[in-house]
Write a structure and sequence with these properties.
- This protein is of the alpha+beta class and 164 residues long.
- It has two domains: 77 residues, Ubiquitin-like (UB roll), CATH 3.10.20; 74 residues, [2Fe-2S]-binding domain (DNA polymerase, domain 1, Orthogonal Bundle), CATH 1.10.150.
- It is 35% helix and 16% strand.
- The chain is built from five helices and five strands.
- A five-stranded mixed sheet has the order 2-1-5-3-4, sandwiched between helices.
- The longest helix is centred in the last third of the chain and has 21 residues.
- The chain is globular.
Amino acid sequence: MPQTRNVSLQINGTLHDLTIDTRTTLLDALRERAFLPGTKKGCDYGQCGACTVHVDGARMLSCLTLAAQVEGRAVTTIEGLAAPDGVLHAVQAAFMEFDAFQCGYCTPGQIMSAVACIQEGHAGSDDEIREYMSGNLCRCGAYPHIVQAVRAAAAATVTQEASL
């Protein structure tokens, strides 16, 4: 008989009190219990990056993380990137501007990794972007546009920070 556990997850600034099976992954808790379907289940083995979220600001593969492991930590999903007034995050806007998606299935994970890539300071060159985004696969092959979007968002972020 499966064991259940009550967990309180801080997701996109909102507390979610959930009763889950102790084996529930963060990915499944997000999609099936917190009703946040933006994080995608690609391979379910940590190989494609479609399930990338941020935990305490660092990127994490939610399919390889138990929900109970992130209790008390700040989880950000693709739904939590835009400002409360609906203004898109710079990376989301750049993905739209540079057409950095085709089917769109990998896009949430790509965007979450791109945000982390920029925050980690790994967007200094196209080669560096490709290296630090390599954990996110795109079956459609939108990589050149993804790199352009990350480069543009990184430049916009630097410009925005300099004006503060």
